[in-house]
Amino acid sequence: MKFFNLLKKELAELLNLQTVISLAVTMAMLMFLGSFMSSTIEEAVKQEYTVTLCDRDKTDFTAELIETLRKNNAIVSEVTSDSEDFSQLLSTAGKDSIIVIPQGFTEDLNAGKAPELISVSEMRSAAMMSNMSNNNDGAERLIRNCISNVFAERAGLTAEDVQLINAPVSISEYTVVKDKTSEVSAEEVMSNIMMQNMLLPIIVFVLIMMTSQMLMSAISNEKIDKTLETLLSAPVSRTAVLGAKMLAAAIVAMINAVCFMVGFSGMMSGATDSVKAEFEGTAINEYIPIDSALEQLGLTLGGVDYVLVGIQLFLTIMICLSVSLMLGALVNDTKQAQTMVMPLMFAAMIPYMISMFADVNNLPIVIRLIVYIIPFTHTFSAIPNLMFGHMGIFLIGLVYQTLAFAVCMFFALKLFKSDKILTVSLNFGQKSKFKKAKKNENQ
Amino acid sequence: MENVLEVRELSKQYTKVLAADKVSFDIKKGEIFALIGPNGAGKTTTIRMISTLLTPTEGDAVVSGHSVLKEPEKVRQCITYLPDEAGAYKNMTGKKYLRFMAGLFSTDIDTINKYVERAENICGLGDRLKDKIGSYSRGMIRKLLLARAVMTKPDLAILDEPTSGLDVLNAIEIRKMIKKLAADEGMSFLLSSHNMLEIEFVSDRVGIIAKGHLLVSGRTDELKARYNAANLEEVFERVVNDNEIL
Hints:
The structure holds two protein chains of two kinds. By secondary structure, chain A is mostly helical. Chain A is built from 20 helices and six strands. Chain A has helices at residues 2-14, 17-47, 60-71, 86-93, 105-110, 137-154, 159-166, 186-224, 227-232, 238-279, 290-296, 303-329, 334-340, 342-357, 365-373, 375-380, 382-387, 391-417, 420-423, 433-442; strands at 50-55, 75-78, 97-101, 118-121, 175-177, 180-182. In chain A, the strands form two sheets. A four-stranded mixed sheet of chain A has the order 2-1-3-4, covered by helices on one side. In chain A, strands 5-6 form a two-stranded antiparallel ribbon. In chain A, helix 1 (2-14) packs across helix 10 and helix 12 (303-329) runs parallel beside helix 18. Residues 281-285 of chain A have low confidence and may be disordered. Chain B has a domain at 3-86 and 155-242: P-loop containing nucleotide triphosphate hydrolases (Rossmann fold), CATH 3.40.50. Helix content of chain B is 40%, strand content 26%. Chain B contains nine helices and ten strands. In chain B, a hairpin with a 4-residue loop joins strand 1 and strand 2 (18-28). Chain B starts with a strand and ends with a helix. The chains are: A mainly alpha, B alpha/beta. The interface between A and B is medium-sized, with 28 and 36 residues.
């Protein structure tokens, strides 16, 4: 009963209106970002088959070319302008990309020369997605094919011959994972599992940061406001006080994780669904569906795998909580509390960044060992290890994390149950009060 | 009269400093005892040991028959402690804070309600108890905390610098409150202060502490007569000079 009283208080402190609002806003923003990405990609896909043409050659051939584009499902809009100022040309046309067929285009073609085509695109920012919708790639590809066909025809070749020249070899792609094989391209497998594996590291990172910050603030605020002394002099055990703080931080961190998970899933699915839609009907999907391929390759996670990942996530939070508790106890003021998050932030950031760009197991042995000393690394590499059947490494990680938690918790409990919780503090660049007292005494 | 607190040769050695050295004194039921001394004299360390926050290096303190070394949880059931410059949870309302603290002393709803009601009457904050503590003045917080410290009618209320940082009127009000609770309800108080005039007004007996040593203790009038002093400040000065301390 007293424990629940403590837990209720801790939860009320951590889950105030401000936190709930910021959490809801973050979630909404992530979802919005997802739908924004989705619409941008869809727009870009649509744009690939939309072309603005400025035909300055005006021959039968260019008219036929435009007709061919239309027959290939391209949405063609034509503009007329003689301006050599491309900026003006774009603004007059009200477009952000345009293809100009210059005068003499057909003449060059007839003379057997490669005719020049002018492709103009407006760049509005350096952002990756902002320029996705203003390229002429699709139209250029179609025009190039048409010209190839003209040259092929003149050389007495059929359209089938051209196709054969362009794709002289039929490639059947197979991917092998350990002893399992599936008829799917490694590129597609990679892009799918990458999207899937991106989510957990983000959640783990958010969890570590949130949990450490929350518990550290909970302990340091009690110390700074001198409410800790009142609490510890009340008839409740220190273990109950500590337990309530840790449980409340873990609960709030979990709520945060779920909200972030929902938000990020929304964002990711916004991006991936559009990309999948783009792939539909292309050669890649002529193999088997990607979900079946992943299953064939053993790259899907089963119930037991998720339980194992859950256990590791739990251990990560517990390690984080016990370390935060020790760091929080060293804090004297709010500024120090912000600084003390740094060691944990780096401990989370290093494996997070590495896991984003490389496989820890492929790093040189010395670096690999150093990185694996950080307990959080094992969580970041949990899913790849389970997927690719590195059970040994996964289980070693699990045992290592359990030991790390036991050691951290032992010291955290020892600190919390001792006098040090009230007397210990960090004095960066300051002489201790005892040294000062001794110096004054000698004077 | 029975002793509520018996402190026997209580010592605390930090790594390099002996903060309390064989401190001994008693407090009787309904008595207000004050530890006086300058900053760093060892008052807070002694109080923290009695409150079970710090473990004594030597000696023991017995509160209502329970040793701080052997039965710290039982000691905590008999005492309340108000630290120097203590704060309260700013996001809670005054009433919620009282209810939370009452919930740490009892699990019975009726008892909790009784404690809260008593604290509401003592602190005199009225409707402001419905407001968040973050909006309170320092004086209001101190009154709230003092009400919290006495709402459970503890055998011993330990108040470290109970009026520090308060204006004159608030300080007077709190001193009167302490005297009334001791006289009317038989509560015992252990106070600490470096404001000797305040202690002279409020306490029944005092103990003068400096550099971790309890130099002398007794009734204020007795000490004044013994040291031929006009007030406690003069008593303190003479005691310190006699013992060649400071």
